[in-house]
Each structure stands twice: as structure tokens, then as C-alpha cells.
Amino acid sequence: MASRTRRHGAAKGARGGFRRRRVPMRLLLPVLVLVALMAMLMLRGYVHSEILADFRVQPPAATDKVPEKILDGGPVIDTRGGRTDSLSVPDHHLVLTFDDGPDPTWTPKVLDVLKKHNAHAVFFVTGTMASRYPDLVKRMVDEGHEVGLHTFNHPDLSYQSQSRIDWELSQNQLAITGAAGIRTSLFRPPYSSFADAMDNKSWPVTQYIGSRGYITVVNNTDSEDWKKPGVEEIIRRATPHHGKGAIVLMHDSGGDRHQTVQALDKFLPGLQEEGYEFDNLTEALGAPSAHTEVTGVDLWKGKAWIFLVQASDAITDGLVVGLAIVGTLVIARFVLMLLLSAVHARRVRRRGFGWGPPVTEPVSVLVPAYNEAKCIENTVRSLMASEHPIEVIVIDDGSSDGTARIVEAMGLPNVRVIRQLNAGKPAALNRGLANARYDIVVMMDGDTVFEPSTVRELVQPFGDARVGAVAGNAKVGNRDTLIGAWQHIEYVMGFNLDRRMYDVLRCMPTIPGAVGAFRRSALERVGGMSDDTLAEDTDITMALHRDGWRVVYAENARAWTEAPESVQQLWSQRYRWSYGTMQAIWKHRRALIEKGPSGRFGRVGLPFVSLFMVVAPLLAPLIDVFLVYGIVFGPTEKTIVAWLGVLALQAICAAYSFALDRERLTPLISMPLQQILYRQLMYVVLLQSWITALTGGRLRWQKLRRSGGVAAPPGGGVPTQRQRSVSERQEPVV
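Above: the chain's sequence. Below: its structure in C-alpha cell form.
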């Protein structure tokens, strides 16, 4: 992105003093969107990972507190209303029960076999699975089967408090209500066995479950299908002796259940021929249905729960696709930058390289200025040290702080001041262009300083008659703060390395406002600077490409600019950049279908700009989102390794870019923190720009506060930092 260090024109009618700021609603939308996405991810992770599950299983305990009639009784235990009753299934009746489902693969196959043989069963479903596959729960109920609770997260309730037990029951019930519109009175504890396995740890839980209105159903015949012993062995273990009735334990989830399905298909007709009936529990006991229809608020709560779970799955699936896209884009961009920047550096640094005949004729330097009293003197004095002959035109765009008077008082030769009413930066540049004497025009910002060689290096590419514009190397001058250091990394790695790549691809998207040069005839052919967008530098660059001009990068044309020093100023600047870039892409969209140079840029440049400057930055935080998701819900180690791999790739790219620019690597120490904090800020800014564009919002020009801390570099190198002023000018409200 260009070094668009400030805009102006919005404060045309601004008064002095402090103004009350009101935050527009659209500023809150990105935050709300982020919160909603994170909530959906947390819900998805919670339902899928069983984060609250407790996989501890109580060892057998004493049984002296368990009533004998429970230990010696049947598999149906009723402790409701203080009762201590147990029931058994009548002879020649089998109640098939399936635990841990529903499973999207095996439950439908089990249901198909049951339907084929006209058999009913009971499915004890977990809340997590019922929430994820509600259609299967509804199918169970619609086809005459009963469903029962098997807790939400499948913990051993002997370890849990009563409040946790209540939560497991209510969440499990909520999922069933949302899926099938019913409430069930059946419950099976996880890790349960026969009634005679009840002990002093599990019996109090069974009593409490009864007090909540549920009948506990264990089993007295275990197929042990989870061991996958073979079809015949499953049938043998599931078959009761001497025509006895039984509750048979099987599973329709938890792994490969093909043996269970095959066993059912043989087991059902075989025992039906022997006179067995396969009923659900209440049919076998001749009791009222365990299902109660739910209406009103409780029904809508259940439906809302299922909707949110389904939405979280869909959103997460979409985010995974986005993560795959951004991963591909990030890797592709890094590979392209590394390869093509090396090609660019090798080409322009080889011995004997030249753009053409040396450019020695004078050039015009345009300095649009709005309230730049703190910076303008440094800017103009840096130009006076230029090694190339220049004229300087300072266009004062209605400043109210005496910017024009400061320049006039300097009394420097070849420096002119043009005053105009506040009309914005594009109008100021066009005014300067109309008054320029020379055919090559350099444009810079009023808060930027040039090195003595900058102008000379910047104009040499015009020795090639095909070159219409040149991008210089914008650098952060005030890098002595953490936020300045982060922007320094961004400028060197993200901007200047990008420009090398785009130069080779011949689709440079932006001539930075801080340091750029133009062939005057090229500007006149495309109509000069336009105020159609908030990114006039991107707009004019794209227009030049479409007109057939080459736009190149001059790495040694260094300019030192004052970057924003607060999060608020940085937000305002990047919001404007992002929105302006979107405007420019939209304005030049017809290039996609045109022929000639315009079509080439449209089919090469616009996709690159859209993917790497809009789509990729918007999706990039997914890497960090899934880092948090993976740490919380797993797999933690693989997630951290993957994130560190991406960071390592970025670090390699950054180190390479710093080496190309001959910069010290010390600022890269803060890069991990930059990736965690700074990138999220850029993401929210870009998201806000998208929302503004999609909702038809408008963003006006604005002026960033400057401290005037970047002074002219003595003989090149990093500029000195002047003492910053305590007082700062008021920034007009957007």
C-alpha cells in the first residue's frame, strides 16, 4: 500500500478547541462481526470437542447403601417421587438400545435395518451429537423409536456436582427438544452396566436423576459390539437365553459400526422367527410413551439452540475455506515476493544497468500542504540539499496555521508558494501541475523529507521513454516507538518488497504520495489527478497503466515520512487507504474486459491488487483465530507448530526484505507481537472499509496530527528525531 501519510480538506469549516466525538454505528459493526464470529467458533468448538467432558471412570465401590431390590432387580430403575422400583422386560420382548449417537454414517444404516425388519428401539443420544445431527433424532421419533438422554458431554456423573448433572440433563434435553420437538423421561448414565453393578457412588446419582423426573435405564444383555468381535459373536452375546426378555446394549456411534449393522440384519429376522418382538421401552412395558410434546417458549429455545449450532458449523466450514484461501494466498505472495524481488534487485543492481540516457534536466517538485507548520520547513530544506536541479512549488491548500508564511519567510531560491482555498489534495496537485515549468514532476507530502540523492534517483527511469511514473522508496522516519517500529516493518516488507514484485509483473498499483514522479505528458493524457476516490495516488497509477505507460520502482529514491503515532491516527489513515483502494479498483473495473494495455492491467493487475491488498488482508486474521481455536479445542501442538511455521515464513521474508533495503534487523524482534496485535487492527480497519463500501457509507478527507519530528537526514541515512511538541492540533472529525 502506498505511503499515503495524510489527507486534508475535511476541516474546511473546523473551529478551534475541542469537539465532541460521536462514534458512528458503522465503527461498531466490525467489532460486532468479530464478536459474533468468535462466538460461533467457540460454540462449534464446544459442541464438537466436548471440552467439558470428563473421561474419568469411577472404579467399583461398595454396594451396602444400594437397596437389594435394585441390585437384584431389572434394568429399568424408577426413583421418581422417592420410589425405589425396578422393572424387567417381559419374556419374548427385546428392547434394543443404541448409545452415543446419532452418528451421520452409522445411525442411518441402523435405522434402515430396523425399518426393514419393522423393529423399534431406544436411542440414548448425547447432547453434542444430537445438536450436530438433529435430523437423525427427528427421524428416530418419526419412525416410532424412543430417544433418551445420555448426558451432553458423556462424563461419569459419579464425579460431578448436582449443578453439573442438572446442566448435563438440561442441555441434552434442549438438544432433543430442538431436534424433534419432544421431551423424554428416559436416561442412561454414561459408562453404566447392569443393575447389579450399581454401587455407593452411582446410586446417589440415580436417586438424584429420579428426583429430576427421569427413569434410569441400564441393560441386562451387552453385545459388546464396541470391541468389534465379529458379527456372529455380537449376535451370540446379544441373544437372551430361554426366551427371556432383555434390554440389549449396542452402539450406533463412536467408531466403525459396520459389524453392528451386519449383525442387526441377521439378528432381527432370526429372533423374530423365534417369536421375539422388538419394541421401544414403553411398548415393551405397556406404559405411556416416554415422549412428551413440547410447545411454546421451551420449543423455541430448543429450535434456537439447534439453529445456532448449525449456523456455527456452517460458519466454521466457511472460515476453514477462507483459511485455505488465505493460506494459499499468503504462501503464493511470499514465494512471488521472494522470487520476483530477487529478479528485480538483480536486474537493477547489475553492473552497467541503466534506464536510458541519464536524466539531467530540471524537474518540478510539488508539495501540497495543509496545516503543515510543524513539518514544512524540514521538508523544504531537505529539497534544497538536492543533488538534482529542481524548482519547488508549495501549494498551500487553505492552511490556517501559517504554513505558507513559514515557506515565504525562508526566502529560498527556486521555491514558490501558491495559495488556494481549501479544496483537497488532488486539486492542490493539479494546481501545482498547471504552474510547473518542467516536463518531469515529482510529488511528495508536506510531512516528508528527501535525501540529497532522492530526486536524482527518482527521475532516472524516465530515460526510458515508455516510463510514465516512478515509485520511490518510502520509509518511516519516526520508528523510535513500538507502533512506529511495526509500521517500519510493514513499509519495508509489505510495501517496498511488494513494489519490486509488481514492477517485474508490470502492474504497480500505487505510486506513494510521499515520493513519486510522473511524466507530465502522461498525467495530462489521463486527465491529471482525480478526486473520484480517497486514494488519488492509486487511482492515477491505475489510470497510467491503462493508458499504456510503464510504472517502475526506484529503490534508491528514499523519502522519510512521519507515520501515525497513535492507534487512533493509524486507524484513520488505514481506513482511508483501504476504502480508497476499493474505490479505485471499482472505478477501473472495466479494464477487466478491455483490450490492449488496459485489458492487460485489468486481467493481471486488478486481480493481484484485489487478492493481495483486499482479500488476503481481510482473511489473514483467520490464522490467528484458528490459533486460539486450536489451543482451546485442539490439537494444540499441531496448531502451535503450524502458526509458528507461518510466522517463520514471514520472518524469512521480512529478513530478506530488510537485507535488500540494507536495513538493520533489530526491529524484527517485535514482529511476533506485530502479528498478534497490529494485524488484528489492520483487519478490523479493512472490515470496516468493506462495511462502509457495502452499506454505501461515505468517508471524507481528514488531516492527521503531526509532530514535526522527522528532520532532514544529514548526508543520507536515517533522519534525526527532533523533540516533539507537547501541543498537537485538533484532528477534524470524520
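Residues 263 and 292 are 32 Å apart (CA to CA).
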